[in-house]
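Hi support team,

I'm opening this ticket because the web form for multi-chain structure prediction keeps timing out on my end. I have pasted the exact lines I submitted so you can reproduce it. The total is 710 residues across two entries, so I didn't expect it to be a heavy job. Is there a limit I'm missing, or should I split the entries? Thanks in advance, R.K.
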Amino acid sequence: MTLPAQITYAMGYGLVGRAALWRQRRKEERAIRARWEREQDGAVAPPLLASARMKELMSRHYLQARYAPGVRKVAWVTSGAPVEVLQALDFLLIYPENHAALCGARRKAVDMCVEAEHAGYSRDLCSYARTDIGTALSGKAPVTRIPKPDLLFCCTNICQTVLYWYRVLAHHFEVPLVLIDTPFLFEAAQPHQVEYVKQQIEAAIPVAERVAGRQLSFPRLRQIVASSRQASELWLAVLNRAQHRPAPISAFDGFINMGPIVDLRGEPETVRFYETLLAEVDQRIAAGIGAVRNERLRVLWDNLPIWYRIGWLSGLLAKRGVSIVASDYTYAWGELAPMMDPERPIESAAQVYLHPILNRSTGEKLRSMRRMVQDFHCDGVILHSDRSCKPYSLGQIAQRDRLANDVGVPSFLLEADHSDSRAFSEEQAGNRLEAFVELMEMRQ
Amino acid sequence: MSGPHVAAIGVDAGSTTCKVVAVTAEGGVAGWRLERGLPRVEEQTAMLLDDLLRDHPVAAGRVPIVATGYGRRLVRRAERAVTEITCHARGVFHATGHGGTLLDVGGQDSKVIQIAPDGRVVDFAMNDKCAAGTGRFLEHTAARLDVPLEELGPRSCAARREQAISSTCTVFAESEIISLLAHGVPVDGILRGLHRSLVSRLVAMVRTLGVRPPVMLSGGVAQNSAVRAMLAEDLGVRVEVPAHPQLMGALGAALLALGPPGDGAA
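Hello R.K., no limit was hit. The queue was backed up. Here is the completed structure from your submission:
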């Protein structure tokens, strides 16, 4: 920790930055309120007021990250990593996947992918990985500047790509890499599998402590796990509110507001944010407001969003009265909440991080989807066949057939990529989506 | 001006051809027009509509119009735009009187549509982001062989040998053709191989949804006798082709414009 860095941090982030972001949030809240006054009959309801707060939280996080070098240790982590241990050691956490999604949403991902491709990385590689590697290699900051890592923390419960991706990062940045290997669950987790993951987390602690320059405090860890659980429970409650008719929030609202539960879970402010969001969603239910004004058809979304076409997709469907009421992707950060146990922080982390949807069998994923179709009263399912995310897309053809033939719910495979817009054809996708909506309409 | 009275019209502004079909109040075809598609969809459809209406008397008042095909949103006079999936299913169901598995192979895309016994669309699949399983594949490769489109089917059927084409990609197939020609392989054998390549893609797509007989074929490619024969051979079932297979989308659109029975459904 250096004094000049601390001064810059206190000035740039603490004094100026936070205040500017607070003002920005107020401005956005006013703009959203004005839209509620003005747009009485749009197909899509104006954004949630809480989304302005979400933007403030996420911007603050990235602003803090910019001033972090020399003040706080930085760890780059995968989205399904057991981060509570790192939070207890006061690491500032950077999620390259979240940064890549941000680049995707702002339509900057392709430029970064091209940087990675020019360095020899295949276009068949995940576009998150290419965006991140492209950003690291080029040193460019297309959306926001992210600090270099002091530690890399990678968990294989979301895919195997992260293993090689983080090795590239470790080689490039010359920093320690901690790898948590999670055995794939074909059935219920066996005690030896839980023990295996638990031992790896325990072994990671001294490495993280050495980089952090401090010792892990278990009371602090328990506190963080408690916050993490509370935020995850609230997130799940928010998503489950979409079981109401009309659904007060759509999966698009979920995609937009999931940043804090991924990047900032364990922080008390995240708990407060989801409390606020839940209250606003409940107000919508009480007032009978739907995310899609004229909700006629309800659809489940499978897989990651198409970040660069969220507005287009949401508008196209809403015009036809289609509300995407749920997504198994956003659900992934809520459904494991009951497994979190502050009293057994390491063992319960091993349980939790063994169970993300991507670490479970395709049959288990199908069962989850069937449950969601029922719970959310869905008239159809859109399965995003994501060129980048192979583990998520694996088995979708069979899953689609089972949903269509066994469950009898119209189901449709939409080809795209979560961040690389070069793998997406708007005309074809739009045409097929419209045909799918017509098919659902005929069923009504 | 003569013939039965026009009660509704369907316009199918496809990627390769533009079709207009007029139907009577009973759903019978009163008249139709078909032309190669021009870049100015709006003007072309307006001209075809005027031309058709000049020759056929209108039943009463304003004739309802439904548009389909890639250019459907450019047909300003249409009340509604409906996708080809719904329109083709509706048209073929009307023409054949039964459900089953419909394979529509157009100029730009191909689709499999499962139609219930009551005419509703049960499920569908379309080719991926590639021209390989479409009419464009034959059109493109035939041009390289200097064979007119209407001769493709008969010459392929008559070919004594079938030259295997390993590329399913349109662009790679073209390179392969150049190489085969350079090796002195007869044109008709290559043509037959190209048809097999296209049909194998179509069969794979049909199988993703499952074959529920009877199998029906529509779209411009349905006029190709070799495609019809090979599909039947590879699927192991008879392939039924309605009269005027190219007009099924426009016919379905016209029937939808006519209204019940079936606002979007059968």
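A quick check on our side: The CA atoms of residues 84 and 287 of chain A lie 38 Å apart. Let us know if the file doesn't open in your viewer.
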